[in-house]
Amino acid sequence: MTNKLKMRVAATVAAATGMMFLATQVSAQESATDDLNSCVRKEQILTTAKGAGIGAVTGFAAMLVSNKKNDALKGAAVGAAVGGIAGFATAYYTAIDTCYKKNPSWVPESNIQHTKSFDKVKKELKYKSSQGVVVRANTVSIDGPVKADGQAVVNSTFALMTPDGAERPVSVERKLYVIGDDGKETLVQFPGHSAAEEHTFEPGEVTDTVRIPIPHDAKPGNLYRVEFSVAADNKPASVATEKFKVSE
Fold it and tell me: How far is it, in rounded angstroms, from Cα 238 to Cα 232?
């Protein structure tokens, strides 16, 4: 392929991808700030274009071979749609996470706080100092209802117990899965918390609250799964999980 043709194809891919999103009204989450809305839309289109490129080039090349140049953009748009829409969820949450990393002040309010004392949890778990450091993920709950263009408020709890009652560092990791109509799960970026975090906590129960943005065009019944895990003292992680769906 010549450089000139490559440039024409690249331009067509970008145009086709933009047209696809405008035509189908696939937009990023409407935000309290236009800046976030604009950033997410731009990043979402760029991410989708990467996955749609092969389909767009194929459609464009086919039209050139048939000499139907007026249909070239349409062909590229069709190819882009085939390659891009399937990855919409991945593109959306990747875009959100990218914008949050560029602008940390845009990350929705979150909170990690100590909610039960060492003595209370010790009785509940019948913990003994001979067990060493124990960290256990307890529950994951989602405040409802969860609606399109809103946020899912996720509350996760875990218990930390130590032989001497002293603080210990704990690795906290959150994962988000989008569940398709066929039941297949797709791991997507957990917006604002896409990597494991290490915090130091005093023993007892700790509650972690984070907010997950829901796409503007999410459909009622769309299903998600949140996975919350904690680990300490080089021991295997303890995991808790919960599903939630988009309401009417």
Answer: 9
User: What is the model's pLDDT at position 53?
Assistant: 53
Say if residues 234 and 168 touch (Cβ distance below 8 Å).
no
Examine the fold and report which residue of 56, 73, 105 is the final residue of a domain before the chain moves on: 105
- Summarize the chain as % helix, strand, coil (round to 5): 40, 30, 30
Residue 63 reports pLDDT greater than 70: no
pTM: 0.72
Q: Residue 145 gets which letter from DSSP?
A: -
Q: Are residues 61 and 17 in the same domain?
A: yes
> Per-residue pLDDT tens for 3-42?
554 455 444 444 444 444 433 334 433 444 578 778 888 8
Q: Give the Å distances, CA to CA, from 218 to 28, 89, 139, 186.
A: 11, 10, 26, 15
200, containing H or E segment: strand 197-201
Count up the domains in the chain and report the number.
2
Q: Which residues contact 66 (CB under 8 A, 6 or more apart)?
A: none
